[in-house]
Design goal:
single chain, mainly beta, 13-stranded mixed β-sheet, five-stranded antiparallel β-sheet, globular
Length: 365
């Protein structure tokens, strides 16, 4: 059968204005987006989808869904995979690192929606002249806090339309001015997700969903119903139930998940090692040669299982997934350089039941 073909579309109007190492530019955020970002266009595959706007493969294995009290959304416990694991990191020199999916096993991680996620912002100094000890010098007069962002537990980054300016006391021997009280601000996420940010004391962030539930730093509805997950992987819901406990072995992780009517369902994740040796070939960026932990199989409560294979001695992405039904889904990837000069790995072919779909990265302005 003739393979189908899709274009992976990158909307670009700034290519000529972005240099090779503009790694903090907003244009690059889409490349590193995982989970289900608001801008994504998803092509369905068994167990998940391919985001055709950035070439990421996403797979979900559901472990349980639980309704909650009050205004809180249901807790959904899943194993999730994203293929976009590679990111350029500056640790005194640029290098490729498999860290784009935080705290993952080569792209796999457990998600509950209760993960705190991570926040960030930029503080840009604003300088100006001041007479100090009889001399006119340039000093930092204030800090512009901007680009407040939250990367949620599914790995989707949300940037907020919020900024604030904090005056900075001048250094000695400049004349004392102030004191300056902390400033605050607020704004909605620019991706249309409905998340709302409040900033206090210059940079302390609290984030709410479009139903008014706090999602960062804790999960709580307006009536103070709370849900949580602790460092040991135990999930407690708004009714005080223990929804899941986690036991970690040398080459396995066992999730005991509450089931309707009492008792638990047991899911066993079996892990192994994948050796990677990247070859992106990007100027001034070091390649990566290392060994990564990856999920080899997942045993389900009914005795069936998933199993996975990865490209050996290469980039470590999942190349095949055997389903509990016995069907096999295969993935191939390519290196692609977009119009922003972002290198990364993009899906090129997905095959199931002998039928292949080709994905050809293209840029449209």
């Amino acid at each position: 059968m003739k393979p189908k073909s899709w274009m992976l579309l990158i909307v670009s109007g700034l290519a000529s204005a972005v240099t090779l190492f503009s790694f903090r530019a907003a244009a690059q955020d889409y490349v590193y987006a995982t989970g289900n970002p608001n801008f994504g266009v998803n092509y369905p595959v068994p167990g998940g989808y391919i985001n055709v706007t950035n070439g990421n493969v996403h797979v979900t294995i559901p472990l349980g869904t639980f309704k909650q009290r009050g205004n809180l959304p249901p807790i959904k416990i899943n194993l999730e995979y994203d293929s976009r694991i590679w990111k350029i990191i500056d640790n005194g020199g640029y290098s490729w690192q498999p860290v784009n999916v935080p705290n993952s096993m080569t792209g796999w991680r457990l998600t509950t929606g209760l993960e705190q996620g991570t926040t960030s912002y930029e503080a840009v100094p604003i300088t100006g002249p001041m007479v100090c000890d009889g001399k006119l010098i340039q000093i930092t007069q204030s800090l512009d806090y901007t680009r407040f962002s939250w990367t949620d537990g599914q790995g989707t980054k949300h940037i907020f339309d919020a900024s604030l300016n904090q005056q900075v006391p001048p250094p000695a021997p400049c004349p004392s001015i102030g004191p300056y009280p902390p400033v605050s601000g607020a704004g909605y996420a620019i991706d249309g997700s409905g998340y709302y940010l409040e900033v206090a004391d210059d940079s302390v962030m609290t984030i709410y969903d479009n139903q008014g539930n706090e999602v960062y730093p804790i999960h709580e509805d307006p009536n103070h119903n709370q849900v949580s997950i602790n460092s040991a992987g135990t999930v407690t819901d708004s009714m005080g139930r223990t929804l899941m406990t986690t036991t970690t072995g040398s080459n396995s992780i066992t999730y005991n998940v509450l089931k309707e009517g009492g008792g638990t369902n047991t899911f066993t994740v079996n892990t192994g090692t994948v050796n990677v040796n990247t070859a992106f070939g990007q100027s001034a960026v070091s390649e990566n040669s290392s060994s990564l932990t990856a999920i080899e199989s997942v045993d389900l409560p009914d005795g069936s299982s998933y199993s996975f294979a990865y490209d050996p001695d290469s980039y470590g992405e999942m190349t095949s997934m055997t389903l509990p039904t016995g069907g096999v889904v295969s993935f191939d990837y390519i290196n692609y350089l977009d119009s922003y000069n972002n290198y990364n790995r993009w899906i090129s072919t997905e095959t199931e039941n002998g039928n292949s779909t080709n994905f050809n990265p293209k840029v449209i302005s």
